[in-house]
Amino acid sequence: MGLSATPLPFRRRSLIEQAAQALRAAVDSGTLTDPLPGEHTLAEQLGISRPTLRAALAMLAGEGWLKLARGRRTRLLRQSETHEPPPVQVCIVCPQSRQQIVPGEHPILQQLHARFAANGIAWEDIFEGRLAGARPEGRLRELTRQHPRACWLLLASTAPMQRWFAAVGLPCLVLGSCHADVRLPSLDLNYRAIGWHAGGTLLQHGHRHVAIVTPHSPLAGDLACRAALRDALAKAAPAANLTEVATGPAPRDLRTKLDRLLALPNRPTAIFCLLPAQSLAVLLHLLDRGWRIPGDLTLLARDLPPVLATVMPEFAHYSRPVDRLASRALRLAQDLLAGRSVPAKPGLITPEFRPGATLGAPRA
């Protein structure tokens, strides 16, 4: 018997329908995530023209898969239901470049990485100088979309960064101090206690003219330390005076400011440095100029870099309790990853003071 001439139920799919099906499959597999790439990229990936792509996208929009908006990225409304969710991880985000903070040489990061690895916690370090600007919101939104199940640890974070995380309510821990108008869980040294102790120690040794070397862009802990030092010196009778030396972007700026400061008739007899690099720079510059430490000047370091642990004379400094900071940060990160509530309040650890040999009385 011959074949019947009755048409069979078959319809050739158009290129638009094929493109729409390919897009559905890519969303289901997790290959495409929100937001979608631009038209040029998508058309190139599918090997079709941009008008054909637009028609396919319009078809998916009508089915409720996505939302189209002129002049904006195409947003997915229906997420994948078949692919595995992204892994839980810790993201350490810092508004400085890797050249400014080297993860392998930063004691807290070294400890945290080791403890994360020992506890099977995946992590990623994100160092981006552009986050230091006044409007980091756009980049932060992009980063948090890329890591939807992350716990965020903010290192050396600026006030705009902290305000954004506080507003969006993502699991977040500030590795440092919160700025005055921000409420987030935080873990840091007790910088106010350090400043107060430094002031009392210098007064006990007879210093009434003190200089403090501060970073070009001070963080919340720097501001708290400076304020406490100023308060401690103000309570002396008669009150001691405090001169601030803010470092500039170039190393020679600090050297020039120090030379001018020490040439004054009422020059400081003690210098308190907040950052490790400043302590080393000030020490080397003073030795180069022939100043005796502590015969002519007392030097006090808040944070001591490892390289200065072996210099002579031994620096008077505050010993950073790295193990305690890393252990507490790990516990808080585990609580956040598990969805447990962490109070939005500071966790402060007071370091131990090491008198060293750079601390002395002012020369008569």
Structural account:
The chain is of the alpha/beta class and 364 residues long. The protein has three domains: 15-76, Orthogonal Bundle (Arc Repressor Mutant, subunit A); 89-184; 191-319, Response regulator (Rossmann fold), CATH 3.40.50. It is built from eleven helices and 14 strands. It has helices at 15-29, 39-46, 50-62, 107-118, 137-146, 159-168, 191-204, 220-234, 251-262, 276-288, 322-337, and strands spanning 66-67, 75-76, 89-94, 122-127, 150-155, 172-175, 186-189, 209-214, 241-246, 270-273, 298-301, 316-319, 346-349, 352-354. The strands form three sheets. The protein has a six-stranded parallel β-sheet with strand order 4-3-5-6-7-13, sandwiched between helices. A six-stranded mixed β-sheet has the order 9-8-10-11-12-14, sandwiched between helices. Strand 3 (89-94), helix 4 and strand 4 form a beta-alpha-beta unit. Helix 1 (15-29) crosses helix 3 (50-62), helix 2 (39-46) crosses helix 3 and helix 4 packs across helix 11. The N and C termini lie far apart (124 Å). Mean pLDDT is 86; it is low at 7-11.
